[in-house]
TrEMBL record:
Belongs to the MsrQ family. It is found in: Cell membrane; Membrane. This is Protein-methionine-sulfoxide reductase heme-binding subunit MsrQ. Binds 1 FMN per subunit. Binds 1 heme b (iron(II)-protoporphyrin IX) group per subunit. The chain crosses the membrane at residues 12-32, 52-72, 84-103, 115-136, 157-174, 180-197. Part of the MsrPQ system that repairs oxidized periplasmic proteins containing methionine sulfoxide residues (Met-O), using respiratory chain electrons. Thus protects these proteins from oxidative-stress damage caused by reactive species of oxygen and chlorine generated by the host defense mechanisms. MsrPQ is essential for the maintenance of envelope integrity under bleach stress, rescuing a wide series of structurally unrelated periplasmic proteins from methionine oxidation. The keyword Ribosomal protein does not apply. Keywords: Cell membrane, Electron transport, Flavoprotein, FMN, Heme, Iron, Membrane, Metal-binding, Transmembrane, Transmembrane helix, Transport. It is a multi-pass membrane protein. Its cofactor is FMN; heme b. Heterodimer of a catalytic subunit (MsrP) and a heme-binding subunit (MsrQ). It comes from the Bacteria. It comes from Loktanella gaetbuli. It holds the Pfam family Ferric_reduct.
Amino acid sequence: MTLPARINGWVRVVPAWPIYILAVVNLLWEFWLALNGLRQYAVEPINVLERQYGEIALIMLIAGLFITPIRNWTGVNLVKYRRAIGLSAFLFVLAHFLVFAVLDVQSVSRVVTEVIKRPYVTVGFAAFVLLIPLAVTSNNRSIRKLGPVRWRKLHMLTYPIVVLSGLHYIWLVKGWPIEPFAYMAVILALLFVRIKWTGIRDYLAKRDASASS
Ligand code: HEM
């Protein structure tokens, strides 16, 4: 048995729900550490928590984008975990936004001002707003209601969302730290691969169609 076939065998028996548990436990653990000023939260815990949630959200959004190329290149099919990864990413984005709004700026009018005045907040907010329909439709009922084609089209929004998130990070840092640029490089590479793969798939479909007609 090949390695991808063996991994797919494991995937069949390992459920997706532990991802939700891990995400919630991690979110609460970071919150508890911040509440008690422990570890990296000794100084400016609110700001550090805000950044921590933002970074975890970005990593999870990117992780979700890896599932298709992994399947296309290796045959390992992790699609079963995509919904849990995406919804967990949304949970962290929501927590990131709530820490910003409730604990950091602490007023609705200041949230509005920050979103309007600071371009990096505008971009982050746009990514958050675009994520909402994806989170709301990440269930079997929505797939049935929208139909798989429309649902898939809607969920292609993940790509602009992740690009906006990467831009949000680059825009807010001062100087030239490597991290946000490394994330953006990975995001752009994934986008490139996706566009290229779609092009190849469409070409093969057209070729097969004209060969059989
Ligand atoms: C998909 C949505 C979003 C993602 C993936 C995201 C991700 C991030 C990341 C990775 C950071 C930097 C973390 C670090 O320095 O290690 C960050 C910082 C920040 N984000 Fe977001 N973000 C999103 C949405 C938002 C929204 C909706 C707001 C507010 C309206 C927001 C406000 C901020 C602020 C104020 C900071 C900087 C905190 C500081 O250092 O003062 N973000 N975000």
